[in-house]
């Protein structure tokens, strides 16, 4: 006997969230209904607006509701000739918090993974190539995760940079192998920037 | 530097969900944006509709978008003179799944907790009293959690039933002390119904 179709639907819908199983979806639904309807209404609006208006920055591919994000638009950032290539928008957050970097970013939204059908186009390397053609960067800092896939992706991009005579570096020092960039503390991440090494082939 | 106010707002809003800290809120937001925008739109709609339209059943207090819920409206359920008192709507779900009970429910939406200012009115005992006055029940089954508060609440209701000469029972067998009703497996919960004991004072 279904008591409340709207409640069933709410519980079911909450399961699109990663890590949310049937029991926690139920707990979340009851919590919103019983303790925080205003928070629930806010949440609904925030999700709807984000899903509808957030797209990718045309230059760096990070999530933004503008055509070009605030970092790419910033003249001080543009004057700095460094481009930091990261896997995810969360990695930008992590690098920004170190205060060590004042260049711009390029977000792959993943890494190369040929077995899953994720090739250069899927991680936006055609867009990156266009930028290498049209802009003059002093240095490309490859800040993909220190995993097998992240390393392979970094190497692929390093080769891609060869014709352009740009300094290519790979962040290195301090990040535990197999770890994820966004989980690393700020100090470690700072070190990995300072200790970056040449990848010019 | 805030890159996307809508994204920041989404991450912040997700934290109204119980058990969701800043890191998992961020993971959820990126997941929706990158992998499941349709699921996100659905979620937004489901939350909005649930928050707006779900209220409490006038008779049993469970969550429903109707004035009176499907169980309270059911003539077969009405013909059965048993009323099962539970703490939460999730407990109804759990009892229904045992298939052992075909009466109606009364949902306290909590338990007595004088120190937190939760007295008889806050758990709807005035509504229950009115039902005891106006309907004739054969039996009140007290299925509050087997915790100190659940036991105290059960005893309070048992005393409340004294003037009405109704059989009052307390589910007992099989539920681990200190446990929560909705976490118990169906067999254990069935046993606790079969093994219920008189609480008539
Ligand atoms: Zn950008
Ligand atoms: Zn009802």
TrEMBL record, chains A, B:
<dbReference type="InterPro" id="IPR006171">
    <property type="entry name" value="TOPRIM_dom"/>
</dbReference>
<feature type="domain" description="Toprim">
    <location>
        <begin position="81"/>
        <end position="176"/>
    </location>
</feature>
<keyword id="KW-0227">DNA damage</keyword>
<keyword id="KW-0233">DNA recombination</keyword>
<dbReference type="Pfam" id="PF21176">
    <property type="entry name" value="RecR_HhH"/>
</dbReference>
<protein>
    <recommendedName>
        <fullName>Recombination protein RecR</fullName>
    </recommendedName>
</protein>
<dbReference type="GO" id="GO:0003677">
    <property type="term" value="F:DNA binding"/>
</dbReference>
<keyword id="KW-0863">Zinc-finger</keyword>
<dbReference type="InterPro" id="IPR000093">
    <property type="entry name" value="DNA_Rcmb_RecR"/>
</dbReference>
<keyword id="KW-0862">Zinc</keyword>
<dbReference type="Pfam" id="PF13662">
    <property type="entry name" value="Toprim_4"/>
</dbReference>
<dbReference type="GO" id="GO:0006281">
    <property type="term" value="P:DNA repair"/>
</dbReference>
<dbReference type="GO" id="GO:0008270">
    <property type="term" value="F:zinc ion binding"/>
</dbReference>
<feature type="zinc finger region" description="C4-type">
    <location>
        <begin position="57"/>
        <end position="72"/>
    </location>
</feature>
<keyword id="KW-0234">DNA repair</keyword>
<dbReference type="InterPro" id="IPR034137">
    <property type="entry name" value="TOPRIM_RecR"/>
</dbReference>
<dbReference type="InterPro" id="IPR015967">
    <property type="entry name" value="Rcmb_RecR_Znf"/>
</dbReference>
<dbReference type="GO" id="GO:0006310">
    <property type="term" value="P:DNA recombination"/>
</dbReference>
<comment type="similarity">
    <text>Belongs to the RecR family.</text>
</comment>
<keyword id="KW-0479">Metal-binding</keyword>
<dbReference type="InterPro" id="IPR023627">
    <property type="entry name" value="Rcmb_RecR"/>
</dbReference>
<comment type="function">
    <text>May play a role in DNA repair. It seems to be involved in an RecBC-independent recombinational process of DNA repair. It may act with RecF and RecO.</text>
</comment>
<dbReference type="Pfam" id="PF21175">
    <property type="entry name" value="RecR_C"/>
</dbReference>
